[in-house]
Structures are given as C-alpha cells and as structure tokens.
Amino acid sequence: MNPNQNTSSATKTVYIAIVANGLLAGFKFGIGVISGSISLIADAINNLSDFLTTFVMLIGIKISSKPADEEHPYGHERFEMIGGLIVSIILMYAGIDVLTSAIDQLRNPTLESIHIAMWIVTIISLVVKFSMMVMYRKSAKQNGSELLEAGEVDSRNDVIIAIALLIGFFVQTQYNIVIDGYLGLIISLLILLGAFGLMRDAVTVLMGKRPSQKDIDAVVKILKEHEDIAGYHDLLIHTYGKLHKFGSVHIELDGSMTLNKAHEIADKIEREIDEMCSFEIVIHLDPIDYYDAKSNHVRLRISKTLKNIPEIESYHDFRVIDGIVEFDVVLKEDCEASNEAIEKEIREALSFVEQPIEVNVDRNYLLRNHK
Questions:
Q1: How does it sit in the membrane (predicted)?
Q2: Residue pair 76/62 in contact by the 8 Å Cβ criterion
Q3: Which of 47, 164, 191, 233 is deepest in the core (most CB within 10 A)?
Q4: CATH 3.30.70.330, domain 213-362, yes or no
Q5: Phi and psi of 281, rounded to 5°?
C-alpha cells in the first residue's frame, strides 16, 4: 500500500470514529442527565473528549502525510507526535473533570434508579467501542500511525469503562449499593493513565526514541555478511516517521585497500540497507593498518590492558598518526563512572606507552547486544 492509500485509509477510520464518538457522547449525556447517573455522564464526557481528539487526529494525519519541502526536508511525519501531545492534554482535562465529579459523588452518594435505557446505551457503547478498537488496530498496522495506535488504546479503555458501568448497574439494582462514585473514580483514573501514557510516548519520540530492534538487527546482519569488514561501530539511526529514517555507521577496512575498492564496498552496503530496511545510511570508513609491526605491537599491549578494566565493553578505531596513539572505547551499560574518570583510569593503566595518547570515551546504546 502506497503512502496516499495509507492516508486515505487512516482518514476514513478517523471519520468513522468522529461519527461514532459524537453519537455515543450525545446519547450517554442525555440519558445520564435524565437519570442523574454521574458514572454515565462521566463516560459521556470521555466520549466527548474522544470526539474532540479525533478531530486532532484527523488534522495530525493530514499534516503528517504532507511531502517534504524546503523548510522540512525530512517530511512532516513527526507532527503525529505533536498531535499526540494535544490529544493527551485534552484527555487530561477530561480526566480531571470526571475525577472532581466522582469525588463529589463519593462525598454525597445518592441512590438513583437504573433505567432500561441506561443498560441499552451502555451495551451499545460496549459493542461500538470494541468494533472501533478492532478498526483502529487494523488501520494502525496498515498505516504505522502512532495516532491510530493511540485511538486503539483509548477505545480499549472505553471497553473496560463500559464493562465497569454494567457491573455498577447490576450491583445497584441487585443490592441497592451505590458504587457510582467509585466507578466514576476508576473511569477518571483510566482516562488520566491513558493521557499520561500518550504524552510519554509522544515526548519520547520527539526527544529521540531508540530505533526499533528490528532495524538495528537488520543493519548488523548486513554488516556481518561482508567479509571485507573487520569491524563496525557508532551506528546511529534517526527516525522522522515511519517513512523517513536516516542512519550512519563506521566500518573498519584494511588500510592498504584502494580508495576505489573501499568506496565500492561502502556503496554496496548502503544499497543493501536501503533495499532491506527502507532507509538511507551514510558509511564512514576507518582504515586499519595490519602491516605496521610497531603499531600492531602497541595495539596488542593496549588491547590486553583495556580488557582488564571492567567498565570497558570494547574498543575500536586504533591508529597511530604522527606518533600519536588514538583509539575509542565503549563503556558497559551499567558503568556509573563519568567519562572523565574512565579516561583518567585508562591513561594511568597505559602509562607504559611512550607515545602521546588520545582516547575518546563513548557509550554506544544501539549496539549493546551486538559484539
């Protein structure tokens, strides 16, 4: 399915959700006011917030599907995250409003009659929301849209809320026990939890969320299949949406290799990653001098010493340039010491090296599971 078809499918899903949420909110609010049911009014407010958020989703999908332009060369897909933030704020407001109403009901509980219409509208809500949850899930898988995934989660919460309301109706009609306020409290907490989760997910992506392990594994698999590569490190993958990803990685090659040959290898890897992973990657070449006996002797001694420092996971980019020994080290995930402290420890451990040392301390979080 191409991007235009994806957008059309997502838009159709949101239009259906707008109509469904609008009708449910109106029915529930009307019956809730007539019956005086705070839990039904609370659920109606939740559906009203769903009604408003679907408009935000519609705008988000429309803007995020716009192609790249001069001001936004990486596209507009991250606007979905901005839309997610707006949706979370609306949900928080609705959750707080329902929470205050529920607290008032707990302070002044009143026994209300359960009308047959309340049962009917809640059962209808359960069926509609379950259908919407399935619809959102299917569309989210087809489109890869975070906003549609948020819609699925919200609909799932609404299914739970509808079940809670039916339980409350049953308890009150059978035992004359008022649990309306408690149900309103539960509903408000579900709304707030969903809002916080949505805000957390949106902020995480905007701040630079870790790329999927699937993308990392795919890149590593391609790199490992090339025998000319002595090693790889500093993998970076930047995500600007499902359709726009960019990356870079350093590969180590024999320093005696011609520039044309090295360029040919890099080009081949870039094409393979683009074909298999659907994103562009830039490869940086790091030459390794296998034939300088003196530098190899120093490298072996340094390697043996670094293995005895428990905080270090690996090292790479060893080279001797103009008499200066340079290399990078990668720290283990659980290392709590600062980079400066580790560098000082390394310099003290390598005091036997006669040449000046330049060491770069790094924490590469993407390749933790790939050694």
A1: Multi-pass membrane protein
A2: no
A3: 191
A4: no
A5: -140, 145
Give residue-wise pLDDT tens across range 288-307.
877 777 788 888 889 899 98
Beta-bridge partner residues of 238: 246
CA 130 to chain centroid, in Å, comes to 25
Collapsed DSSP state (helix, strand, coil) of residue 113: coil
Measured in whole angstroms, the distance separating CA 112 from the mean position of its chain's CA atoms is 44
Confidence of residue 4 (pLDDT cuts 50, 70, 90): low
pLDDT in tens, 213-243: 888 899 999 999 998 898 888 888 888 776 6
Give the H or E element holding residue 283: strand 280-288
Q: By mean pLDDT, which of 175-179, 213-217, 315-319, 323-327 is the weakest?
A: 175-179
Cα–Cα nearest to 239, from 285, 207, 199, 195: 207
Q: How far apart are CA 151 and CA 155, in angstroms?
A: 6
Question: With DSSP H G I counted as helix, E B as strand and the rest as coil, what are the percentages for the chain, rounded to 5?
Answer: 65, 15, 25
**What does the pLDDT read at residue 1?**
45
Rounded to the nearest 10 degrees, what angle do helices 79-107 and 180-208 cross at? Answer: 160
- pLDDT tens by residue, 143-162: 777 788 878 878 887 888 78
Domain ranges in the chain?
Answer: 3-208, 213-362
Measured distance CA(304)–CA(143) in Å, rounded: 50
Q: What SS3 state is found at 251?
A: strand
What's the angle, vertex CA 223, arms to CA 220 and CA 226, rounded to 5? 150
Q: Does domain 3-208 have CATH number 2.60.120.1680?
A: no
Paired with 233 in beta bridges are 250
